[in-house]
Specification:
Blueprint (H helix, E strand, L loop, with lengths): L27 H17 L6 E3 L3 H14 L4 E3 L2 H4 L2 H16 L3 H12 L5
Parallel strand pairs: 1-2
Length: 121
Amino acid sequence: MKLLLIRHAAAVPRGTPGVPDAERPLTPQGKAKFRVAARGLARVTRRPDVLLTSPLPRARLTAKIAAHAFEHVAPAIEPALAHSSVDGIVAAARLEQKAFHADDGGAVIDERIRRVGPRQR
């Protein structure tokens, strides 16, 4: 399985009045620049097998743009990507790899939920 990490595109700055951090949207310029970047990535690397995204709106939109550029891949929400420690994110990626290669996907998904556990800051 190929792992490609992409941080969300440019979003409105932290501390913007009236915009909670978890709700910060992408800026119009951030969306436009990432569309160009995603098309470039799709030209130079193969399509990812799985596209995981944080549930945060800015990450979900970034993943949607990437999915459009790569074609035939749909973003899947992974809560650990929102606020987990690096260890939590790595654990989620490892479990996703097992799920991708497993014959019994249901058991692996259950294990993924148990092992990733609650959000960590």
